[in-house]
Each structure stands twice: as structure tokens, then as C-alpha cells.
Amino acid sequence: KGTGGNRWQWFDPAMDLAADDSARLAADLRTALRDDQFFLVFQPIVSLPGGEAAGVEALLRWQHPARGLVPPDVFIPVAERIGVIGELGAWVFAQACRQNAAWARYGATAPTRISVNVSARQLADPGFVDTVAAILQETGADTRRLLIEVTETAVLNADTAIEQLHRLKTLGLRVALDDFGTGHSSLSLLLTCPVDVLKVDKSFVSGDTAGRAGAIIVKNIIGFTTDFGIAAVAEGVETAEQAEHLHSVGYRLAQGYHFGRPMAAEAFEDRYLNTPALVQLSPAGL
Ligand code: C2E
Ligand code: MG
Ligand code: MG
Ligand code: MG
């Protein structure tokens, strides 16, 4: 493409995804799976107000040999479209389980749970839970230390998905509803889905969504999640003011750049696991 260089730059989705480029990305994705171009980064989910790590979310990264770091919002849809999301998802889950087992040796200061994101297409595959169960057995991971994050759209009117969530719960995993408020949010979802954690989308937290309306939603979510016995996590917290406000309206869990960006496993260990004061064992709900 003649631009060359700049391998460290984030891939720019606006520049790309012309049809033939998208086809090339798809082809590259298959190679990437074989060539080990994926890795996980880890972002703390913290307790308020102290900022101790209550858990940690695994986020997938693709280091493309020529394009640089391709963000998951770009390549996950491609992986779904070409049918490799199952394979990729299995890799993520196994990797998270291994990391979890490695961190368990920190004993009391190990993070209580690792969250793994699962896309709609993965959850729609009737073989998904069997794959999960096989990986759990193979890695010897402690299911109580795992949490699966799904979006509203993945479970809305999707009986297979909901049934699989129930089976995951039977295996001992917990379930979070991710990006809450961005899909076709329905409170009845909380009756049909076995949800343990609700993650409030960052657009409400940042005030992007309808300003005052967003603030009212954020505040009222605490009321019904508490009544349902569900833990609420505020996503995308970027400032101390937001953190203070969230705490003042009742949030006990948060995530965002203000507390910690997604980081390499070693950085997470240095910052949280080797610093017992920054880790809180079994915090309320997560
Ligand atoms: P998500 O699960 O809702 O993850 C949160 C996203 O927000 C992450 O983007 C994270 O880096 C970003 N974020 C965290 N704190 C802040 C903040 O304070 N401000 C802002 N502006 N952003 C923040 P990322 O890593 O690019 O992931 C995007 C999405 O890709 C994820 O959204 C998730 O839906 C999907 N994804 C990531 N990893 C995986 C994976 O392993 N499997 C699947 N199926 N999907 C994944
Ligand atoms: Mg997530
Ligand atoms: Mg989210
Ligand atoms: Mg998201």
C-alpha cells in the first residue's frame, strides 16, 4: 500500500475495510491463529473507593506482522463471519485458564476472578459449553475463578444462548452482562438469564449518552441490581470525579483507565499481585 513503516501504530479502521482489504484481513486471521499472533492483556476491575483489584478482565490483542495492533472491535466480527471465532475463543479461554492457574500460586492475593469475553456467535454454538468444559479439565482451572462476559444482544431472544449460560452456571462459572444499556436492554432479561454481574456501559458513565439521562440511568441501576442480588460494575471510568460520583451513588465496583489500562500479565502481577494492599479477596459480589 506504499505507506510502509509505522508498524507500532494502531490499525486505523476508518482507512480500511474496503471489500478486498477485508478479505485480506480474513485470510490473515487464519494465518494468525497458526502463527501465534494473538495475546491477552489484562485490565483490573476494582473495588471502590480504594481501587484494589477485585477481578481482572482478559482482553484479546492481535499483533499483525504488517498492520500493527488490530483492535478486537475490528477483527472479532471478521472472525465471526469467516467461522474461526470458535477456535479463537477456545484459545482465549485456555490462555485465560492458564494465566489463572499461574496467578493462583499467589494464594490469598491472587485476583478472585478472570473475566473472559464471549461473542454472540460463540454462545450460539451448541458445542460451546462442551468446549469450555474440556478446556477446564485440560487446564485444571478453578471454575470459581472464572467469569464469562456476554452482551445483551447475544442473549436477547436466543434460547440456545440462555440455556448455555445455565449450563455454565452449573459448571460453577459466573456470568456478566457486558455493555449494559447499549443493546435492546430489557429488565426481563434479568429474569431469564442467570446474571451475576451487570457491567454498565461506558457511554453512560462518561456522560456521552444523553447527559443527564445517562446519569439517572447509572444511579437507578444500583437500585434494581441490589434488589436482584446482582453486582454492578461501572465501565469506562476515566476520571477521579467519575469514580467519586459512582461511589457516592452506591457503586462498589468499577473499571477504566482511571484505575488501570489493559496491561501485560507481568505488569498486572507487579502492580497488583506483588502489592497485597492493592488486592482485595472476595469483594462484594464479583
Ligand atoms: P468490552 O468487553 O466491553 O471491553 C471494554 C473495552 O473498553 C476494552 O476495549 C477496553 O480496553 C476499553 N476500556 C477500558 N477502560 C476504558 C476507559 O476508561 N475508557 C475507554 N474509552 N475505554 C476503556 P478493547 O480491548 O478494544 O475491546 C473491545 C471489545 O472487544 C470488548 O469490549 C469486547 O466486546 C471485545 N473483545 C475483547 N477481547 C475479546 C475476546 O477475547 N473475545 C471476544 N469474543 N471479544 C473480545
Ligand atoms: Mg467485557
Ligand atoms: Mg464492556
Ligand atoms: Mg464493549
Provide a descriptive summary of the structure in words.
This protein is of the alpha/beta class and 286 residues long. It has 12 helices and 9 strands. An 8-stranded mixed β-barrel has the order 1-2-4-5-6-7-8-9, surrounded by 6 helices. Helix 3 (85-104) packs parallel to helix 5 (128-139) and helix 5 (128-139) packs parallel to helix 7 (159-171). It starts with 18 loop residues before the first helix and ends in a 13-residue tail after the last helix. The relative contact order is 0.14. The model is unreliable at 1-7 (pLDDT under 50). It binds ligand C2E and magnesium ion (3 copies). Residues 43, 59-60, 71-73, 76, 89, 92, 117-119, 149, 178-179, 202, 236-238, 255-257, 262 line the site of ligand C2E. It comes from Actinoplanes subglobosus.
Give descriptors for this structure.
single chain; 286 residues; alpha/beta; eight-stranded mixed barrel; 12 helices; 43% helix; 18% strand; binds ligand C2E; binds magnesium ion; Bifunctional diguanylate cyclase/phosphodiesterase
